[in-house]
Amino acid sequence: MARVLVVEDSSTQAMQIQFMLEEAGFEVETARDGAEGLEAVARVEPQIVLTDLDMPGMNGLELVEALRAQYPALPVILMTALGSEDIAALALQKGAASYVPKRNLARDIVQTLRNILRLTKVVQDQHRVFQCLTESEFHYRLENEGSIIPPLIGQLHEHVGRMQPCNENVAIRINIALNEALQNAIYHGNLEVSSDLRQEDERAFYQEAERRRQCPPYRDRRVEVSARINRTEAIYTIRDQGPGFDVSRLPDPTDPTNLDRIGGRGLLLIRTFMDSVEHNSTGNEITLVKRCPASSGPALDPAAGS
Asked: What share of the chain is helix, strand, coil (3-state, %, to 5)?
């Protein structure tokens, strides 16, 4: 059972969130502000922190910075209200793992926690370093099945760990970016299921994806993944066989009108956590780059890409 620390200054909202998470099987501890939350981390040793952004005293952004300095492997998820989009984007740059708009908590928070915890476990379980390897290149051909994504990310993480001993916080953020890009390639690229449907009804989104997975032309499409990793950078290219899209019409993920959208949040996470993100001209290929600055040796710099 995963232990979650909920940092929320409203006792009513804290109780609602605690009930929701306990119903989903989490063990929940609460704190009333950032300072109390920081003290609680040392005492209760949570696996993940869920914090409000706007609080008296030490706010959510300050808590993210303090936790990153003292507990770099501990993932933090923000709860955001309308009007806090700019601060949420800054908190992601400072070390937060993700965010969920408060009005979407009932719909998104349980699955978001589970996803982040799963990706965190990948990092913790596969932390090995191989010093003699100078460069590796890998190629994968995936069917349109979302369950293949976590083990693939785990294997890619292991490849990176062979040459770039990596701060766990950085590794988790790379894993989150890869997860978003792979989900996009399968569901939006090959299966062509609109993110608008997921915005309206997530269950209907996955039901439609499952239907298309059995039907031509969608069932015959594959996702091509390549990774080239050396001691200075990791380059990931993910290509689907769908029709693509007009890259020039890609919405700005930092626009407040897009931050609440599931697709907008995914693109914001990818762009925040990677040093370089490029699409090909037809929109069915994305290349993600994470660099290892020479000044910090072989380890990936936690601040890179911020």
From this structure: 50, 20, 30
